[in-house]
Amino acid sequence: MNEWKEVRLGEVVQINPESLTKDYPFNVIDYIDISSVGTGELRETTQYPISEAPSRAKRLVRAGDTILSTVRPNRRSFLYLKKPKENQVVSTGFAVLRATEKINSRYLYYLISDQKFTDYLVSQEQGAAYPAVSIDSIKNAIVLLPDLETQEKIASILGSIDDKIELNVEMNKTLEEMAMTLYKHWFVDFGPFQDGEFVESELGMIPEGWECIEIGEAVSVLGGGTPKTSVKEYWENGDINWFSPTDLTTQKSLFISKSSKKITKLGLEKSSAKLFPPYCVMMTSRATIGEISINREEACTNQGFITLIPNETFTMYQLYFWLKTNMDLILSIANGSTFKEVSKTNFKKLKILKPKNIEEFTQKCEKLFKLIESNLIEIEELTNIKDYLLPRLLSGEIDVSKAEKQVEEVL
What we know:
The chain contains 12 helices and 22 strands. With about 400 residues, it is α+β, with helices and mostly antiparallel strands. Among the domains are: about 5-145, Alpha-Beta Complex (Adenine-n6-DNA-methyltransferase TaqI, Chain A, domain 2), CATH 3.90.220.20; about 210-355, Adenine-n6-DNA-methyltransferase TaqI, Chain A, domain 2, CATH 3.90.220.20. The strands form 7 sheets. Strands 14-21-18-19-16 form a 5-stranded mixed beta sheet, sandwiched between helices. The protein has a 4-stranded antiparallel beta sheet with strand order 2-9-6-7, with helices on one face. The chain has a 4-stranded mixed beta sheet with strand order 4-3-8-5, with no helix packed on it. Strand 6 and strand 7 (about 80) form a beta hairpin. About 30% of the residues are buried. The mean pLDDT is about 95.
């Protein structure tokens, strides 16, 4: 620990070093808003002609910058920009942190990622309705800094884990796209059945032997419920997964394992929440409508869901992609004045095709979904390793060379 020292963050980083000016060379910007960034994750960007850019689109970024949301710091919205686009512009709701020669840029990002840093920001926030932290508070944060060589080693260890996670995420996007293409070939274009007879249906021409039926007849359609939050026996030491829409909007993953909150058996019995087995298809049905995920463990949900229970005829593969490809229709049946909601009654009337002779589709989809699930399990394991190592490496508690060997074995 002799080579480690405490410094103020403002001594080793530049904050908001560049802003949009009249001399900006691009006609279109690629804009990152606060809502587009999760914890180390960029969900989307928006293209704007420079003349129509939002008033908050002001901060310029470069490769190696870390952007940190100054609003509601407890949400942990930050991102390391490895290769930003030339015309990338971020909201003034972010602080752009640029490393000086005194700190490794990726090490800086991991300092920001540490829960201790988040706790510090939360302690400094001001404003009840719109809690935010000032740039001065960020500058005055005390951080522990080893020599540059050690910084680079720590950044390399944690970065190699993040790079593998990122690779798995990209692989899963490709695998899901392949599965969607397969679904459309079988259920939209009817490719394997083109040489056979077709018959009329409510959904147009379909292969002979197929039927068009209501989803409520095809599978069990479940809603959810919330145990009284005032009764601690319904929640304390609960071990039953109880999903809320936030779980799905946060993780945005085909498969989901754990819910952020759990309920007890008594809580399940005393509410309208319904337990369902692994590998059912959950869809959020209110507030944010249309987030879809498949549970890997037994679970229940709050009332903001419609859950489909697969059976021998209607597999989770068909149900998942049926929801995906019919989302515009599902959104069109939502109603409500305060917030939109898709009712179970209206949903059950939607039409789905009851197929025949799709064993090949099921087998191919099963292989793709198993690969996706395997990658997600690895992501969870790597995330747990990173969460264990990060605070210990940043505090000097763990020997860097030992951590290097451990991570090499895993990767």
